[in-house]
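Hi Prof. W.,

I finally got the DUF7064 domain-containing protein prediction working! I wasn't sure whether to trim anything, so I left the full sequence exactly as given:
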Amino acid sequence: MLGHRGQESNPQNILDVELEGIWYSDYPWILFEVDSPAHVLATSFALEEWSKKYFQKLKETHQSHYEQMGFFSGKLKVNGKYYELDNLDAFRDHSFGHKRDWTIMHRYIYHMFYLKDGTKISVGVISQPCTSSNLMVGYVAHPNKKVDMIDDCDLKLYQHGENGTLPTELCFTVTANHKTYELQVKYLLESIHYKGRAREAKMHERFHKCIVNGVSGRGISEWHYNNKQ
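And this is what came out:
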């Protein structure tokens, strides 16, 4: 992502990169299958047509996913030039389960927000039609390390980039612990990569700047598209 604008999407642009550092955290970790509000999961499953086959598919495709906000410090070397990375906002996440099948995932939109007042927000909207065509996950991590799980989000996947053309700006709201957050996003640099042995998943990774309830910040987003065709 370093260099002149546009180079991040140029596959011919090769950089010699070395990264050494440490990730650390005093934030609690979030396990979505345990910490997500029960009514959020119930609402998602209630939208689907129930059958024995449906519940068997839920069991077969279940994925555990955890996240944790934290910080990163270290040294970055790019084409011989060094950069000091000191106490950068960061997070870690991991998904695991019986099997990982990208072909059953239709789309998702994921955002991470890091605000100047120390608030950090993670929110994702996911469509996996065989189990949940509209699943919302996320949380707000406050500067005092208290975490509120998001219990509502008005971002609708079909309204934004369903045809593969991503918007340059986006506005939506979420609620957590009876507080509404108005999220304004302007996307900046973009890079595309693929996952799966047959490149079944296409990922658009974008840096963004944002304003949340009047507080500015920056973050990253990941827009996933099914690429099995």
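Residues 49 and 203 are 29 Å apart (CA to CA). Does that look reasonable to you?

Thanks,
D.
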